[in-house]
């Protein structure tokens, strides 16, 4: 009695809960595995019976037709026997398929019930061990580069930085509205496109000060914009659909390093006199 009261007051130990659910889940998973094997075995057995029915049924039909023809010497009797034999064979095959399909449906129903029970047991285990609360705390306080920061703090900082960037774009838009007055449509469109590129960069997570900015491509000959955009500081080739003018830009090659640059005043090294004399001696011997 006292032990029972102590158990009620202290609560269930975690080890007892884990051991109990381990046994239950092990039994359920074993049942699921056995049912899956039974389902596979049922399908294999159906194929085996169908092959046997076709083979032995065809053999019996051929032998029976031979006996009928030998006894009656009548083609009509043979044809009637063939039709009846095929009909009986199809009926047997249909009945065999229905029998195994019924067995298969029973196994599938048991398998579905076992899977539902398995999921329910897992949910009970998660609730009893406070899995969701523990997991949410772990996910929250193991964020950042070193997995040791608060996710909410990081999100607040990121939202704040995005808000500051958008406020800067809003101020830039107000300045742009005052600057475009009295300018041509071409200049106004260029400035507007640049501002929209910055907005898209901020929304996509890019930095405003990035060098690879998306800019509209304008033909140098006809000075028309056909809806094509390019990235700055990249190589490209463009043929204007209006005038056929070919424009091309090759990305700048990296500058040569100091080791690759040859000094202008460097002269070829002279061979030592001893080496030169040795070479002359060898050449005279060959001659």
From TrEMBL:
<keyword id="KW-0472">Membrane</keyword>
<dbReference type="Pfam" id="PF10058">
    <property type="entry name" value="Zn_ribbon_10"/>
</dbReference>
<keyword id="KW-0863">Zinc-finger</keyword>
<feature type="transmembrane region" description="Helical">
    <location>
        <begin position="78"/>
        <end position="96"/>
    </location>
</feature>
<keyword id="KW-1133">Transmembrane helix</keyword>
<dbReference type="GO" id="GO:0034976">
    <property type="term" value="P:response to endoplasmic reticulum stress"/>
</dbReference>
<dbReference type="GO" id="GO:0061709">
    <property type="term" value="P:reticulophagy"/>
</dbReference>
<feature type="coiled-coil region">
    <location>
        <begin position="152"/>
        <end position="186"/>
    </location>
</feature>
<keyword id="KW-0812">Transmembrane</keyword>
<keyword id="KW-0175">Coiled coil</keyword>
<dbReference type="GO" id="GO:0071788">
    <property type="term" value="P:endoplasmic reticulum tubular network maintenance"/>
</dbReference>
<keyword id="KW-0479">Metal-binding</keyword>
<dbReference type="InterPro" id="IPR040115">
    <property type="entry name" value="Lnp"/>
</dbReference>
<feature type="domain" description="Lunapark zinc ribbon">
    <location>
        <begin position="195"/>
        <end position="245"/>
    </location>
</feature>
<feature type="transmembrane region" description="Helical">
    <location>
        <begin position="53"/>
        <end position="72"/>
    </location>
</feature>
<comment type="similarity">
    <text>Belongs to the lunapark family.</text>
</comment>
<dbReference type="GO" id="GO:1903373">
    <property type="term" value="P:positive regulation of endoplasmic reticulum tubular network organization"/>
</dbReference>
<feature type="region of interest" description="Disordered">
    <location>
        <begin position="250"/>
        <end position="287"/>
    </location>
</feature>
<feature type="compositionally biased region" description="Basic and acidic residues">
    <location>
        <begin position="261"/>
        <end position="287"/>
    </location>
</feature>
<keyword id="KW-0862">Zinc</keyword>
<protein>
    <recommendedName>
        <fullName>Endoplasmic reticulum junction formation protein lunapark</fullName>
    </recommendedName>
</protein>
<dbReference type="GO" id="GO:0008270">
    <property type="term" value="F:zinc ion binding"/>
</dbReference>
<dbReference type="GO" id="GO:0006999">
    <property type="term" value="P:nuclear pore organization"/>
</dbReference>
<keyword id="KW-0256">Endoplasmic reticulum</keyword>
<dbReference type="GO" id="GO:0098826">
    <property type="term" value="C:endoplasmic reticulum tubular network membrane"/>
</dbReference>
<comment type="function">
    <text>Plays a role in determining ER morphology.</text>
</comment>
<dbReference type="InterPro" id="IPR019273">
    <property type="entry name" value="Lunapark_Znf"/>
</dbReference>
């Amino acid at each position: 009695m006292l032990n029972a009261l102590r158990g009620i007051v202290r609560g269930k130990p975690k080890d007892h809960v884990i051991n109990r659910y381990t046994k239950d889940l092990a039994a359920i998973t074993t049942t699921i595995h056995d049912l899956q094997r039974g389902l596979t075995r049922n399908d294999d057995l159906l194929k085996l019976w169908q092959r046997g029915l076709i083979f032995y049924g065809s053999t019996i039909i051929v032998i029976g037709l031979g006996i009928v023809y030998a006894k009656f010497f009548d083609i009509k009797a043979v044809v009637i026997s063939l039709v009846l034999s095929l009909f009986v064979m199809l009926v047997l095959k249909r009945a065999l398929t229905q029998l195994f399909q019924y067995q298969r449906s029973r196994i599938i129903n048991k398998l579905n019930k076992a899977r539902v029970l398995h999921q329910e047991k897992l949910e009970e285990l998660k609730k009893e061990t406070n899995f969701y609360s523990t997991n949410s705390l772990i996910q929250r306080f193991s964020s950042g580069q070193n997995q040791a920061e608060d996710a909410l703090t990081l999100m607040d900082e990121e939202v704040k930085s995005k808000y500051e960037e958008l406020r800067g774009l809003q101020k830039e838009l107000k300045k742009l509205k005052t600057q475009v007055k009295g300018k041509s449509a071409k200049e106004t469109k260029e400035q507007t496109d640049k501002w929209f590129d910055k907005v898209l960069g901020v929304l996509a997570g890019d930095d405003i000060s990035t060098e690879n900015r998306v800019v509209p491509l304008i033909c140098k000959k006809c000075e028309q914009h056909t809806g094509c955009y390019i990235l700055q500081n990249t190589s490209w080739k463009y043929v204007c659909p209006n005038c056929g003018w070919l424009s091309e830009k090759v990305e700048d090659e990296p500058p040569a390093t100091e080791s690759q640059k040859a000094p202008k005043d460097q002269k070829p090294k002279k061979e030592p006199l001893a080496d030169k004399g040795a070479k002359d001696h060898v050449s005279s011997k060959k001659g």
